[in-house]
Design goal:
The protein is α/β, with parallel strands linked by helices. Helices cover 37% and strands 25% of the residues. A seven-stranded mixed β-sheet has the order 6-5-14-15-16-13-17, sandwiched between helices. α1 links the parallel β1 and β2. α1 runs parallel beside α9, α2 runs parallel beside α9 and α9 runs antiparallel to α10. The longest helix is centred in the last third of the chain and has 30 residues. The radius of gyration is 21 Å and the shape is globular.
Length: 382
């Protein structure tokens, strides 16, 4: 496939890359997306689309389509193992301020919504990027097949282990958080309310995200074990033992989940990075973050909208990329820090400390909590 030098090249067909393509296409900016897999696909788990994320999707004319595939979230609550609410966010109150709802959605459904808006002729699939080079006014991307694509700019949306980021910055491996997450999806879940619920214990956290059609997605966070358990059935049994003292909804979901519908990953993060010249980074390639605030995909979606706006009518791609990075840097870094702090608070290393933590969280003034929440939810720019 040959591309015009007027195209912006996007490496990576995850949520960030696909949204970038949608946002560029809406502004009539030529683009080509390069994905290593035969087709952009999603892992079998959910995404919580927070209010700020839905605000951007609405502005990209994707809000109604995504809402049809998702489950509206009425409330987000964090609770102790005894059921006491430590902190909660009333989604309707946030909706009224931000103007967009929060949704639980399966990743595959979000992928399909994004793909349905794209010109398939601009997708290059099954041929991963192995290198790139920059010239005075063009970028050339080298694919494994030997093909060479040229464009006027390159957007790296190729994930936490981004090849393009490594070539630009020579970064060390991503920072290990010491926390491992097992995610699961139940096709026939117990009767659960339309809210996101988390339970915090001693070094263990469990959360539930509602999905349409009676399904639920859940996540279980534990200290990273010394040895992994590769067999999905044995691994699920291991988690069931760890969470045997958690409330009934947690135990019921673990029991209702098939092992093949689970995915385990050790959580990692990196400092924010920008690009050079006509190359920039987006989403996890730029700022992978811990999932404790449910903002990883949301910040990639925000990136995509801001990037397209900065490129619209820009005479210099490099200047547009630097303006994009300047606009996004402070917000992304703040959310990254908040996610790390949330993980530290949730993962306190002793029972007495978890008791103190619960008391402190329950005593926080509602006004302070609302200020922090609104800073996160009301900061989208598209």
């Amino acid at each position: 496939m040959s591309t015009s030098q007027e195209h912006v090249l996007i490496a990576g067909g995850g949520v960030g890359g696909l949204t970038a393509a949608v946002a560029l296409q809406r502004r009539d900016i030529p683009w080509t997306l390069i994905e290593a897999a035969p087709r952009p696909t999603a892992i079998n788990t959910s995404i919580l689309l927070q209010n700020n994320t839905m605000q951007v999707l609405n502005e990209l004319d994707l809000g109604r389509q995504v809402c049809d595939k998702g489950q509206r979230v009425a409330r987000t609550s964090i609770m102790s193992l005894t059921g006491k609410i430590l902190t909660e966010v009333n989604a309707e109150e946030v909706d009224g301020t931000v103007g967009s709802p929060a949704l639980g959605i399966h990743r595959a459904d979000l992928h399909e919504a994004l793909l349905s808006r794209l010109d398939s002729g601009c997708l290059v699939t099954g041929d991963p990027v192995i290198g790139f080079e920059t010239h005075a006014d063009t970028v050339a991307v080298h694919l494994r097949s030997g093909e060479r694509l040229q464009g006027r700019g390159l957007v790296a949306a190729d994930g936490i282990d981004s090849l393009i980021r490594a070539r630009l910055h020579g970064d060390r491996p991503a920072v290990r958080s010491g926390t491992t997450c097992l995610r699961g999806v139940t096709e026939t879940s117990p009767d659960l309310p339309d809210e996101v619920r988390e339970w915090w214990g001693h070094r263990l956290q469990f959360g539930i995200i509602p999905l349409p059609d009676g399904r639920s997605s859940w996540f279980a966070l534990i200290p990273t074990p010394a040895r992994s358990v590769p067999d999905p059935g044995d691994r699920l049994t291991f988690y069931q033992r760890l969470y045997r003292d958690f409330p009934a909804p947690v135990r019921d979901l673990l029991a209702a989940t098939q092992p093949e519908n689970t995915i385990e990953v050790e959580l990692r993060h990196r400092p924010w990075r920008g690009g050079f010249g006509a190359v920039t980074l987006l989403g996890d390639a730029a700022h992978p973050m811990l999932p404790n605030l449910g903002q990883g995909a949301g910040q990639a979606i925000e990136d995509a909208a801001v990037l397209a706006r900065r490129l619209d009518g820009a005479a210099s791609v490099a200047a547009a990329f630097r303006a994009f990075e300047q606009e996004r840097r402070a917000r992304v870094r703040w959310i990254q820090r908040q996610a790390v702090r949330m993980n530290q608070i949730a993962s306190v290393p002793s029972g007495p400390l978890s008791t103190v933590r619960d008391a402190v969280l329950r005593g926080l003034p509602a006004r302070l909590e609302r200020t922090t929440v609104m800073r996160m939810f009301d900061g989208a720019h598209a």
